[in-house]
Amino acid sequence: MATKAEQRDRTRAEIVRIATRRFAESGYAGVALEDLVAEAGLTRGALYHHFGSKLGLFQGVVDAAQRGVAEAVEAAADAHDDTLEGFLAGCRAFLEASLAPAVRRILLVEGPAVLGWGEWREGDLETSVRLLDAGVAELAAAGVVDGDGLDLGIVTAMLSGALNEAALVSAEASDPDAGTDAAIATLRRMLVGLAPAAAQ
């Protein structure tokens, strides 16, 4: 028999699942809580108990999406022994995850607009950017990029912005997979240019 905590977690996860689909389909402004709770078989009060408000629910949806993308990135990177290949595999996983309409709209379009740049950025820093920062540090330790001559924080920030933009462009392309391939090939060439002078 499930404990109250397990029941609460299951209910919360189900609300997030339904809300993710609805926010992805209709956008934040287009979702009516009455319709959402009716689909979930809950009362409005129950939803407020778990999330406090519609904005709180959307924040929960964004958090779940960010964690899901970060998990995909980490798994892809960990599957490679080579530092550069692992880093590129993680970047590819991010781009591929962003091709999903729900992820793209919720994380890259609605998220910053609804939550505000600062709030959205905080979640991004704790998930994808945290992994990107660790990956750049590993590239520097392995001598792939110049850890002494470069500000690695700036490298991470620039790569993060580039990957977010590449995700949006690839998603709108007639051949998204080709767009992802092109983005990774370009990223590889960029990283080669960041190598220590002696290695170039």
From TrEMBL:
GO molecular function per UniProt: DNA binding
Name of the featured protein: TetR/AcrR family transcriptional regulator
Domain (HTH tetR-type) ranges: 9-69
Gene3D superfamilies: Tetracycline Repressor, domain 2 (1.10.357.10)
Keywords of the record: DNA-binding, Transcription, Transcription regulation
DNA-binding region(s), residue ranges: 32-51
InterPro entries for this protein: Homeodomain-like_sf, HTH_TetR, Rv0078-like_C
Repressor is among the record's keywords: no
